[in-house]
Specification:
A hairpin with a 2-residue loop joins strand 5 and strand 6. It contains 2 helices and 6 strands. A 6-stranded antiparallel sheet has the order 1-2-4-5-6-3, with helices on one face. It is 16% helix and 42% strand. It has one domain: Hotdog Thioesterase (Thiol Ester Dehydrase, Chain A, Roll), CATH 3.10.129.10.
Length: 146
């Protein structure tokens, strides 16, 4: 299943500049997703990170990867309207820089779930090379319960 930006915005509550997934190219609801983030020089964080040597901040790489997992978690109709909140991150590794012109391809896999809690593993790739990986603990909450 492929989702474009309009489909993604029906699932995730994020909006620019914090919407960090452009397309979902594979989706198995509540199991896995593969998504794309096209990294461009037009993004505001590159003004200061770093002038003359733009590098995507690690925290935004993690957020982009988590949003791909969020699409997998929130796609089922019974989860629509919920928000996936971080409960923690483990085994975070950065293997290469992500810079303007790169395409960050994230593969997200739900490792385990119990009710509205679970563990998500994500690997982010640029040109087929591992750029970052992490395990995310999450909780699904209704927006009005925040």
């Amino acid at each position: 299943m492929v989702l474009d930006i309009n489909d993604i915005q029906k699932i995730l509550p994020h909006r620019p500049p914090m919407l960090l997934v452009d397309r979902i190219i594979e989706l198995e609801p509540f199991k896995s997703a593969t998504g794309i983030k096209n990294v461009t020089m037009n993004e505001p964080h590159f003004l200061g990170h770093f002038p003359g040597h733009p590098i995507m901040p690690g925290v935004l790489i993690l957020e982009a990867m988590a949003q791909v997992g969020g699409v997998a978690m929130l796609y089922p109709e019974e989860h629509r309207g919920k928000i996936a909140l971080f409960g923690g991150m483990e085994h975070v590794k950065f293997k290469r820089q992500v810079v303007p012109g790169d395409q960050l391809v994230t593969k997200a896999q739900l490792v385990r779930t119990r009710g509205d809690f679970g563990l998500l593993h994500c690997d982010g790739y640029v040109d087929g090379e591992l750029a970052a990986s992490a395990d995310f603990k999450f909780a699904l909450k209704k927006g009005e319960d925040l």
